[in-house]
C-alpha cells in the first residue's frame, strides 16, 4: 500500500531545510538503506513529500500536476481546514457522482485509521447554470445540505484546480441552494450564504412558533434542563441557545459538550436532527460559540452555525447585525445585511497537504 503526502512549506522553512540537509548526500544513500527505512524524504523547492515503500529519485512536482493525476486505483485529494474544521477535498469534475461511497468517507475521516477529517467534500460539475456543485459526506457517512467552513475550503480548492489568481468568485449549487463564494486578495473567502430560514416547519422543528412563524427564545426541555432556544436554518437546521432556566448567560468553556450535544442533536423536536450552538455574549458585536455538529460531533468551527448564531442574537436582541464570532478554531466575521436579508461570512481556508490513497 502506498500513501503520498505533499506538505506546503514557507520560504523560511525551505531555507532552513536547504541549509541543514545535504540533499546530494541524502539521495546518494545506498539502496538498502531506503528498503530498511521504507521512507523516501524529498525536499523539492516548494514542499516536502513523504512516500512509503518508495525508492525513487526526488522529483519536483507542482500542486497542479499532483491534482491532475488520474491513476485509477488511487484517490488523489487535498486536505484543507477552515478554523480547524477539516476536510478531504476531491476533484470530482469528471463525473456527476462522488468517487467514493459514504462508507469509504467514514473510513477516510477516521483519525486513527484514515486521513482524519470532519467530512469529505466533492467538487462536481455545476447544474442549473452554476459553475460547480458541492456535495459533502460527514464523518458518520450522512450527507448534510451545506457546510460554511467547507464551502470556503471548496472555494480555495477550486482556485487551485483552475489556477485562478487575484480576487474572483463563482457560483456553487448545494443542497441548501445557490452559494456564491468570493476569494479575496488577502486569501480569505467571503461567502454570500443567502437568506436565513426562520419558519419553524422549514427549519425543521416541531417546537411551536412564537414569533412570526419562527421559534425565538422558546423553552426546550433537554434531559431535565430547560434551555431557551432559537431555531434557524441556513439550508441545514440549527438550534441556538444563549441561556436557560436559572442561568441568563452561558459560559461556554464550562460546558460538557460531549454529554449535552447528542441530546440536542437527537431530540424529538428536530425531525432531521440539528446542529446546536452554545453562545456566550461578550459584547454587542462579539460572540463566543461552541458547536455540536449534526453528523460530526464537537468541531472546532461551524460556518453555518456562526451565521445562524448572529441571526438568533439579533432576533433575541442580544447583538447587532455585524459580529465577530469566536469559535475554538478562530474567528469568523458575520454580517446579516438588512438591505437584502442575506448573510455574509468571511474567514480563512488553509491548505494542509495533498495526498493519495488506494481505493
TrEMBL record:
Listed EC numbers: 5.1.1.7
GO terms for biological process, alphabetical: lysine biosynthetic process via diaminopimelate
Leader sequence segment: none
Catalysis: reaction(s): (2S,6S)-2,6-diaminopimelate = meso-2,6-diaminopimelate
InterPro entries: DAP_epimerase_AS, DAP_epimerase_DapF
Pfam families: DAP_epimerase
One GO cellular component term noted in the UniProt record for this chain: cytosol
Pathway it works in: Amino-acid biosynthesis; L-lysine biosynthesis via DAP pathway; DL-2,6-diaminopimelate from LL-2,6-diaminopimelate: step 1/1
Gene3D superfamilies per the UniProt record, alphabetical: Diaminopimelate Epimerase, Chain A, domain 1
EC main group: isomerase
Coiled coil: none
GO molecular function: diaminopimelate epimerase activity
Chief location bin: plastid
Keyword annotations: Amino-acid biosynthesis, Isomerase, Lysine biosynthesis
Location of this chain's protein in the cell: Plastid, Chloroplast
PANTHER family named in the record: DIAMINOPIMELATE EPIMERASE, DIAMINOPIMELATE EPIMERASE, CHLOROPLASTIC
HAMAP family documented for this protein: DAP_epimerase
Family: Belongs to the diaminopimelate epimerase family.
Protein name, UniProt field: diaminopimelate epimerase
Protein source organism: Lupinus luteus
